[in-house]
Amino acid sequence: MKVKWIDISVPLKNGMVHWPGDPPFKIEKLLKIEDGDDCNTSLISAGSHVGTHVDAPYHFFPNGKTIDEMPFKATIGPARVIGIHDPESVKLTELKRHRIRQGERILFKTLNSIRCWKVDHFIEDFVSISQNAAEYLVTQQVLTVGIDYLSVDSSKKDGIEVHQMLLEAGVWIIEGLDLSRVKPGKYELICLPLNILKADASPARAVLRK
């Protein structure tokens, strides 16, 4: 029996949650078959960090790689989903137990997956990644880090330190994952952002399979 792919990306829709201050996602029908048009055609507008998306180093560094320069190996290949129990952030003490190795793609499943995606308004006290944990991930030379809400940084502190730490070290970031249907463990990951030239980020479709 073939192992099924699990969609871990968030559906894009009108009225969905977005980062405060960012443009919301909007889809508007321009042509409708039901109105007598030959086809259905839509206008889509959104910020580059809407829903499930990949951050490029250019997001915080003017000379950093842009989203079209992302190597495929960053988001295609073996990945490990790590369950985080701390209700505030991914902390170093919990992270060290998992013996993270060089070149790994790490996706954090936190309380966000079962709590934050159930509503369309922004949840301020989501689980983020602590600076100490980010430093450890950089030291371990991971390839990619994913989190199951809209930022690796906490909204309470309005910080950018974790973003900067990871991206400056060449670690690619996937944000806005929905890992509610995924158990911690090893998987095969495919997560491809749109090929947008010179972009700081892009929405992406992400899937896993055992």
Q: Percent helix among the residues? A: 10-25%
Can you identify the CATH class?
A: Alpha Beta
Low-confidence stretches: none
Radius of gyration: 17 Å
Q: List how many beta strands DSSP finds.
A: 12
Give, in order, the helices and strands: EEEEEEHEHEHEHEEE
For the biggest sheet, the summary is:
7 strands, mixed, barrel
Structural class: alpha/beta
- Name the CATH superfamily classification: Putative cyclase
Count of folded domains: 1
Give a summary of the structure in a few sentences.
Helix content is 12%, strand content 28%. With 210 residues, it is an alpha/beta fold.
Mind explaining what this structure looks like?
The longest helix has 9 residues, at about 130-140. This protein has helices spanning about 90-95, 110-115, 130-140, 160-170, and strands spanning about 5, 25-30, 40-45, 55, 75-85, 90, 105-110, 130, 145, 170-175, 185-195, 200-210. Strands 4-10-9-7-5-11-12 form a 7-stranded mixed β-barrel. A two-stranded antiparallel ribbon has the order 2-3. The protein has a two-stranded parallel sheet with strand order 6-8. It is α/β, with parallel strands linked by helices and about 210 residues long. The protein has a single domain (about 50-210), classed as Putative cyclase (Glucose Oxidase, domain 1). About 10% of the residues lie in helices and about 30% in strands.
